[in-house]
């Protein structure tokens, strides 16, 4: 695990075009902005944990990874409208 210290406005870049920016820090926590290509799936940790716990007792034996792979891919944003 890589551990970094960042301040508001500073960013981290991850291979594949992912950029994580620290938007704000306060008593409630840290707000992060994530920019990534539209084909990159971004999930909160608690969602992954929920899927994993739901599949533990599943009779089908499907792994959490295979269930996550079945989730719909994010849609690419529509091109901006042009006045003709």
Brief descriptors of the model:
84 residues; 2 helices; three-stranded antiparallel sheet; 2 domains; alpha+beta; 23% helix
Characterization of the model:
By secondary structure, the protein is α+β, with helices and mostly antiparallel strands. It has two domains: 34 residues, no CATH class; 31 residues, no CATH class. A three-stranded antiparallel beta sheet has the order 1-2-3, with no helix packed on it. The longest helix has 12 residues. The model has no long low-confidence stretch (mean pLDDT 82).
Oligomer: single chain
Order of SSEs:
EEEHH
Number of helical elements: 2
What kind of sheet is the major sheet?
3 strands, antiparallel
| Rounded Rg | 17 Å
Structural class: alpha+beta
Outline: extended
Reconstruct the topology from this structure.
Layout: E1 11-14, E2 18-26, E3 29-35, H1 45-56, H2 64-70
Helix pairs in contact: 1-2
What's this model, at a glance?
With 84 residues, the protein is an alpha+beta fold. 23% of the residues lie in helices and 24% in strands. It folds into 2 domains: 7-40, no CATH class; 43-73, no CATH class.
């Amino acid at each position: 695990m890589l551990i970094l210290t960042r301040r508001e406005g500073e960013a981290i870049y991850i291979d594949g075009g992912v950029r994580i920016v620290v938007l704000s820090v306060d008593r409630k926590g840290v707000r992060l902005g994530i920019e990534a290509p539209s084909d990159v799936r971004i999930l909160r940790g608690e969602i992954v944990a929920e899927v994993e716990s739901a599949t533990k007792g599943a009779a089908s034996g499907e792994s959490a990874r295979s269930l996550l792979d079945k989730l719909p891919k994010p849609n690419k944003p529509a091109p901006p409208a042009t006045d003709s």
